[in-house]
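Task 17 of the worksheet. Students: predict the tertiary structure of the chain below and write it out as structure tokens. Keep your answer in the requested format; marks are given for formatting as well as content.
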Amino acid sequence: MQVKRMFLLISLVLLAAACSTHKPMPAVDYVDIDRFMGDWYVIANIPTFIEKDAFNPVETYERDPDGTIATTFTFNQGSLDGPVKVYQPRGYIKDTVSNAVWGMQFVWPIKADYRIVYLDENYQQTIIGRNSRDYVWVMARSPNISDADYTALVSRVNALGYDLGELKKAVHLLPKALIQRSTKLPQISYSAITLGSVDEVNIYGGKLNVASNGSLIGQQSLSQDQRRQLKDILNNLDLTSIETLEIPSKRHQFDGAKLATLVIKSGGISYSSRTFDDDNPPSELRALVTFLQAQQTDHRLELMAP
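Model answer:
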């Protein structure tokens, strides 16, 4: 009941602001909806009342079969490690020619004005605005952007007619903590190379692919148990340290050794390990490598089964 009241209050606030008279705010010419889906980190905003004490704000979009946009907005309330709050409004594409003007519904039948007024060509940065110039969201695929990019985005917000005195910069956690609070698994790529052989394990979008010498030998969706196990492993891994981890041993391919590399992509940033021996990874990566190798072995056994 309390959640419903909150949704109703949010909707009424947004609707009341939308009733004020302002010069129309143009949206972008076209949005490829499928490319736009996924995680967007709020970099700065003029916050609604529920966001005024929000840390680590992330908006996630997922297109449902009926064409509506399942939206999940998560943040920590009050501090970087405060209680996690989750809101799940639904987006309705109102302009199906551009896909850039939506109605965002927290409670039926109210659909608040929501328009994509800036989107870079690589779909890495965006600005969400409203005709009423009351609220705005500057978002990016990564929780951290350069000062130059931030200044350019703020200039765009100013040009749209917003009061920059109301704009607040969001505070985000480091990549390790972002994985801990994310509802989605990062993209993981593991490869092991020896003379005449390349083995690969890839995890993307909750799906596992196992390949050998460029040929797919297994594919499946991760089970809930596998997801939990993988999430627990990732929770203990500091992504920012992967590139500098000490390599415990260094053999060579001509000795028959398998040389492995690991790449994890999270929040639009790729974190790559240095090359290490497949059977002797850095201690910090051992649990993850063991998990990936187990999936690889299972699929090889299935392939060999009569």
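Marker's comment: Confidence is low (pLDDT under 50) at residues 1-19. The two ends are 56 Å apart (CA to CA).
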